[in-house]
Amino acid sequence: MPQEPDDARSLLAALIALPGSGLRSVIRSAAMTPGRLTIIAIGLAVLTALASITASLAVRDRSDTMAELTERREPLAAAAQQVYRALSDADATAASAFLATGEEPAELRQRYEDDIAMAGSSLSKAASDPAATLRMTAQIDVISQQLPVYTGLVETARANNRQGFPVGASYLREASALMRSVILPAAEELYRTDTERVAEQQDDAGGFPVLAMLVVVALLAALVSTQRYLTRRTNRVLNVGLVLATVAIGIGVLWSVAALTVQSVLIGAGKDDGTEQVDLLVKARIAALKARADETLTLVARGDGGGYEQEFILLSSRLAGDDGSGGWLAEVKATATDGTRLASEVSAAQDSAVQWLRAHADVRELDNAGDYGDAVRLAIDGGNPDGAAVAFVALDDHLRAAIDEARQSFFDDTTAASRALTLLAPGWIVLGVVAALGVGAGIRERLREYR
Q1: Do 434 and 49 contact (CB within 8 A), yes or no?
Q2: Cβ atoms of residues 278 and 80 within 8 Å
Q3: What is the DSSP letter of 69?
Q4: 76 contacts 194 by C-beta, under 8 angstroms
Q5: Could you write out the three-class secondary structure of 244-288?
Q6: Coil, strand or helix: which one is 166?
Q7: Where are the domains of the chain?
Q8: For residue 78, which of 410, 398, 315 has the smallest C-alpha distance?
Q9: Nearest 5°: phi and psi at 426?
Q10: Residue-by-residue DSSP string for 111-143
Q11: Are the C-beta atoms of 336 and 342 separated by less than 8 Å?
Q12: Closest to 83 in 3D by CA, of 197, 192, 224, 237
């Protein structure tokens, strides 16, 4: 029994000495060529596994980012854009319907109701974003709370207008002021935030995987250094196993450089020809819708619409310049590829913008001359090919088609970019296994010479 404490102390001392003895064993082993080769083999195997896994994960991350772009992030941005557009169109359509004499045109009423319904459904989709920030949620809440107030004011304006009460115009202007000062700014910020997120993910998807490439380059350097070391020790120029490992990793590097270059170019094309064009076209379309509301609200105000007319001039200048050949439409056309449907739709939109500006000038001339009835008919008559309504509808249709075309370019380019990385992630794992086997076989062959 008295020996038990001594035995315990001996066991404890032995355990404490284990790391030191292990380290001394490694040092002694490293002093001899077989031990040194074993350590090199283990180090290369670990570095090979690290390089292949890191490269595979980097490729997988880029593929996941592109999938999220096409499947979730861009559709959410499109939903936010639909909210913005539908609300702007509802405001313009409500003003046009208010101007109609007699019974309200059924097509305008239906368009207004469709816009409100579209805004509601698109808002629900935008609100489904699990990554929405508190600020985005706040904007969604503003729209959700204020939209019923807006529609209530519009219905009050309609009811008074049907009975011939002038106060109806005041309710309509109040509704439009609520839309422009509260609801549309919230919708614009929501759209802008979603658009910025799309751009950030495009940058992430097209960026260079620095960490993965550094690890792979370190592995290649280690393989080359090991072969030079073995050449000096054995006087053999080539080690088949290590050459196989180097070739496998080299194939991975060349494959990655080619695939990532193609992918990066396509992501850039999707941004230049897709999302950036969409952004300009959305700005143009919203400006056109707001200007259309200004055009009709100027008439609703009956001589007190100078502010609306000034805003029309500002918005139309941003849309297409003073003569229809400038503005955002000119920016899109300058970067659109000639002969594409996008270029064709933008050119047609420019022509419609010129026609609309010309018709608007005629509307203002009639109204300023006191011909209010003729001015209203020229502004809202959908059957007059020279009227403002026909030109505006044509402009809006061409802008919608151009946006759809630019979105399709984004999807096509991003999908092609994703296909450029096909099999690259699992390919790195396979190449890593081949390289590891080559390292093991090459070092084992040299170790046999010392037995």
Answers
A1: no
A2: no
A3: I
A4: yes
A5: HHHHHHHHHHHHHHHHHHHHHHHHHHHHHHHHHHHHHHHHHHHHH
A6: coil
A7: 46-448
A8: 410
A9: -65, -30
A10: HHHHHHHHHHHHHHHHHT-TT--HHHHHHHHHH
A11: yes
A12: 192
Q: What is the pLDDT of residues 229-288, one digit of tens each?
A: 888 877 666 788 999 999 999 999 999 999 999 999 999 999 999 999 999 999 999 999
Give the Cα separation of 64 and 114 in Å (integer). 36
Interhelix angle for 210-234 vs 240-270, to 10°? Answer: 160
Identity of the residue numbered 192:
R
AA letter at 204: D
Q: Say yes or no to pLDDT of 408 above 50.
A: yes
204 DSSP assignment: H
Write the pLDDT tens digit of every residue in 124-153: 999 888 888 888 999 999 999 999 999 999
User: What are the Cα distances from residue 254, in Å, to 163, 222, 417, 450?
Assistant: 77, 18, 17, 37
Q: What is the rounded distance in angstroms from the CA atom of residue 10 to the CA atom of residue 146?
A: 81
Long-range CB contacts (< 8 A, 24+ apart) of 96-100?
A: 96/292, 96/296, 96/379, 96/380, 96/389, 97/158, 98/157, 98/158, 98/161, 98/168, 98/169, 98/172, 98/296, 98/300, 99/296, 99/299, 99/300, 99/376, 99/379, 99/380, 100/380
The three-class DSSP label of residue 163 is coil
Q: pLDDT value at position 446?
A: 66
- Burial tier of 52 (Cβ tally within 10 Å: 0-12, 13-18, 19+): buried
Written as one letter, the residue type at 417 is A
Place of tokens 């499109």: 78
* Alpha-carbon separation of residue 393 from 65, 130, 158, 286 (angstroms): 38, 36, 23, 13
Q: In the structure, what pLDDT confidence band is assigned to residue 26 with cuts at 50, 70 and 90?
A: very low
Q: In sequence order, which ranges of 271-370 are alpha helices (DSSP H)?
A: 276-300, 306-320, 327-335, 341-368
What whole-number distance in Å separates Cα of residue 179 and Cα of residue 264? 41
Q: Examine the pLDDT at 27 and tell me if it is beyond 70.
A: no
Instruction: Give dist(CA 36, CA 226) in Å, integer.
Output: 11
Instruction: Quote helix, strand, coil % in the chain, to nearest 5.
Output: 85, 0, 15
pLDDT at 20 over 80: no
Mean pLDDT confidence for 368-373: 91
Q: How far is it, in rounded angstroms, from Cα 274 to Cα 214? A: 32
Residue type, 176: S
> How buried is 2 (Cβ within 10 angstroms: 0-12 exposed, 13-18 middle, 19+ buried)?
exposed
Q: Which residue has the tokens 């196993």?
A: 241
Q: Tell me, what's the pLDDT at 18?
A: 45
Contact 293, 95 (CB under 8 A): yes
Instruction: Give the type of residue at 178.
Output: L
